[in-house]
Specification:
It is built from 8 helices and 7 strands; from the N terminus they run H-H-H-E-H-E-H-E-E-H-E-H-E-H-E. It has 234 residues and is an alpha/beta fold. Strands 3-2-1-4-5-7-6 form a 7-stranded mixed beta sheet. Helix 6 (156-165) links the parallel strand 4 and strand 5 (167-178). The longest helix is centred in the N-terminal third of the chain and has 17 residues, at 3-19. It is globular, with a radius of gyration of 17 Å. The structure holds S-adenosylmethionine. S-adenosylmethionine binds at residues 34, 39, 55, 61, 82-84, 88, 103-105, 108, 127-129, 145-147, 150.
Amino acid sequence: MSGADFADRRAKARARLDAIDPHKRAGGADADPYRREWFEAVYELAGDDPAGVPWAGLAPHPALAQWLSGRTLAGFRALDVGCGLGDNAEALAAAGARVTAFDLAPRAIDWAKRRFPESSVDYCVADLFDAPPAWRGAFDLVHELYTLQALPSALLPAAARALASFVAPGGALLVISRARDDDQTIDGPPWPLIRANIEALAVDGLRVATLEDVPASETSVRHWRALFRREGDG
Ligand SMILES: C[S@@+](CC[C@H](N)C(=O)[O-])C[C@H]1O[C@@H](n2cnc3c(N)ncnc32)[C@H](O)[C@@H]1O
């Protein structure tokens, strides 16, 4: 299979997925406000072809890989939010963390388990907006990559509270998303985030520890990489 074949199938899949996305139509957003049906449809239509999943890089994201490079997460309990096909969760596990990874789409979770049958990662179906109560304050590192930018902006405050709720005393939240300037117009979804969106994730006892503006030269397009910390002994 050539790279050109893959790129061609991905382009066709994107066009198909855009055509069924109510958020791509004026006034259509109310049909699927949390985009749950669309995410489920992505994995269903993809079948077993990762080209059909627009965000599937089949490798840890470079902005996460860079951050992990030279770090150990030995002894950490980590949570990967909206884990998709599992590459980032596996990278967190390879760095030493005990990882739980969740996605609302059962097909994504089944696929991740099939891809990594020997994995130590605990893959499970769950919803960011209705997560298991046992996850409250249970993780030393919560990792979120590309889910926030896929959500309508009206959901970001609730998403911020949900993410913060998972972070243990002394723990951290790592968020990586595509970045845009305040005045840059976009034709989402996805909706790359502005700096204020990232800063607004510092809720319920989290504070911004670092907020990096990672240039396109390092990760193909510009990204934010932000680390938030919660005070405490951990
Ligand atoms: C843009 S994809 C990114 C996937 C993965 N983080 C990656 O970078 O490959 C967003 C993922 O979040 C999942 N998702 C969307 N809304 C969610 C929610 N409310 N709870 C859990 N997962 C959600 C989707 O099913 C999808 O797999």
